[in-house]
Amino acid sequence: MMPTPVAGDAGGLHSKTTKEAPVSKRDCSGFTIIELMIAISLLAVILTLAVPAFGRFIEQQQLTATANRLVGHLQFARGQAITRGTLVAACPSRDGRTCTGGNRWEQGWIVYLDPEKAGQPAEGGDVLRVVQAMPEHVMHSGGRHRVRFKDSGMAYGTNLTIRICSRGNPEAARAVIVSNPGRVRATREVDPAECGG
User: Fold this and answer.
1) Where is this region: Disordered (predicted)?
2) Collapsed DSSP state (helix, strand, coil) of residue 56
3) Is 93 domain-assigned?
4) Which of 58, 78, 144, 181 is surrounded by the most beta carbons within 10 Å?
């Protein structure tokens, strides 16, 4: 309540207080059921729009991580070929000990010493790295079944492209490219048709 001066009071020493309207319990009670229903409806609409976009974001990050992992292992193979002064290869592998002979990299892969160009590790000791299966992605290369690096760091054969595709979203695909000079890189520039889209 605020004091207000009384009319005719010269010094304003006497004041009269004015009363404000009483506050009802309803004004202090919070949300009404209608307001709560509107808030829940708005939240549902926002989540309906946000959740699929977040799912696609997670999927793209997983594909990027898989591509980066493969790039790292292929760069490791190239580095080992240069360091050891011998041929080092990488190929798809189901069991982590031998090459499968196919071009399906999602079943896992190995990096191994291949000084005799045998196409398979000679013994278990020749395997330098093993990566287990990644069934959530489809990873395939055009025609080559392995990548082999010379002691100079150059790769044998033609350029190799390994496509990393999402089972549900071909537009999110990535690719790992190995050039003849031995450069290994990842890219997002993949035709969705190459992933079945």
Assistant:
1) 1-21
2) helix
3) yes
4) 78
Domain that holds residue 46: 34-195
Position 120 scores a pLDDT of 87
Instruction: Report the distance separating Cα 173 and Cα 38, nearest Å.
Output: 40
Question: For residue 168, what pLDDT is reported?
Answer: 75
Residue of 155, 84, 184 whose CA lies nearest to 176? 184
The enclosing domain of 98 has a CATH number of 3.55.40.10
Question: What is the total count of domains within the chain?
Answer: 1
SS3 178: strand
pTM for this prediction: 0.73
For 93-114, the pLDDT digits (tens) are 999 899 987 888 989 999 999 9
Closest CA to 148 of 114, 99, 187, 195: 114
Q: Are 92 and 105 in contact (CB under 8 A)?
A: yes
